[in-house]
Design goal:
The chain has 327 residues and is α/β, with parallel strands linked by helices. The protein has 15 helices and 11 strands. It folds into 2 domains: 164 residues, 3-Layer(aba) Sandwich (D-Maltodextrin-Binding Protein, domain 2), CATH 3.40.190; 135 residues, D-Maltodextrin-Binding Protein, domain 2 (3-Layer(aba) Sandwich), CATH 3.40.190. The strands form 2 sheets. It has a 6-stranded mixed beta sheet with strand order 7-6-8-5-9-11.
Length: 327
């Protein structure tokens, strides 16, 4: 009997060591701060995965671009050095041009249209058909709401944008959009934006209005223009090595937990943008301007004609318009 009990104890100890050996913590690179709706969703995802895998899969987040810019850590993901990363559709457009279709200004007119398009299996297939060729894999998307403009000088309509230096990402689509708006597109690292506006390097930026409060940009940018021109999508992508390391059952849990938080962000993203903008108005004295967007929509029409010259982008645009019920 004693030998039997001893054998059980040894078996239990071996099993415990096996579980410990299988447990791992994976690097997750992000270029945002650990606050706001996107960060909340990521933390929720990580907690859900850790709980359901009983600690076998954990994530360590590297916030605020500690591992470099999105372009930089995407390269590390492709090499398998970093396991996961938050990479937006503008960054991915530089790698896979078809992503330019979902970056076009006013391609999504409402949050409902956006959700229908992004959850459509055919759209997902088109966007990520070549992901494996670039040595990364999609996990899912997080909605961060519509993007608008905020500036350090008073602007009431499109004419007021003429000549203003507006910070943007290094995306051909975003640069051309701002040029057609009449502004001077100025690529600048997000981490340099606050000082850039303070010092007059730029006169403002395009982005979610929540940044006026969450990122304290409202201390400098005192005019928020509700232009709602684009809905930049934050994708979580993984290295191919990450997927190969995980037990299939654990990978399924990771995918399920991300799908759960993804659905949640669509519901809260716009609410958060509006609430944060109102807080910026209250605490920082930001003036929110409901600008007439019709002239902006008219200004960017040439971008659609240009985008349709690429067969892949044209097909994706046709699919998006079919889903949205527009011609």
């Amino acid at each position: 009997m004693k030998l039997f009990k001893k054998a059980l104890l040894i078996a239990g100890a071996v099993a415990a060591l096996s579980v410990q050996a299988e447990a791992a913590t994976y690097k997750f690179a992000v270029n945002i701060a650990n606050n706001g709706s996107t960060a909340e969703a990521l933390n929720n995802f990580a907690a859900g995965v850790e709980e359901r895998t009983e600690g076998r899969v954990k994530f360590k987040f590297f916030w605020n671009g500690v591992l470099g810019s999105q372009e930089s850590y995407l390269q590390q993901i492709q090499k398998g050095v970093v396991d996961l990363g938050l990479v937006n559709s503008a960054t991915l457009e530089n790698l896979i041009p078809t992503f330019g279709a979902i970056n076009l200004p006013y391609v999504f007119r409402t949050a409902e249209e956006y959700g229908k398009v992004m959850d459509d299996p055919a759209v997902k297939d088109v966007l990520f058909t070549s992901a494996a060729e670039h040595r990364f894999a999609p996990l899912g998307y997080l909605s961060s709401g519509f993007r608008s403009l905020y500036v350090t000088k008073p602007v009431e309509d499109i004419s007021g944008l003429a000549g203003l230096k507006i910070r943007t990402m290094s995306s051909a689509t975003y640069i051309e959009m701002l040029r057609l708006f009449g502004a001077v597109p100025t690529p600048l690292a997000r981490s340099e934006l606050f000082a850039g506006m303070q010092q007059g390097v730029v006169d403002g930026a395009e982005g979610g209005l929540a940044g006026l409060y969450d990122g304290k940009l409202g201390e400098v940018a005192k005019w928020a223009l509700k232009t709602d021109q684009t809905r930049l999508t934050d994708f979580t992508v993984t290295s191919l090595d990450f997927r190969e390391k995980l037990d299939p059952a654990d990978l399924k849990i990771v995918e399920e937990e991300f799908a759960r938080v993804s659905a949640g962000t669509l519901a809260v993203a716009d609410k958060h943008q509006n609430e944060a903008a109102e807080l910026a108005a209250k605490e920082y004295g930001v003036t929110i301007v409901d600008i007439d967007t019709a002239p902006l929509m008219e200004a960017v029409k040439p971008m659609y004609a240009e985008a349709r010259k690429d067969e892949g982008t044209r097909k994706l645009l046709d699919k998006i318009f079919e889903i949205e019920g527009r011609e």
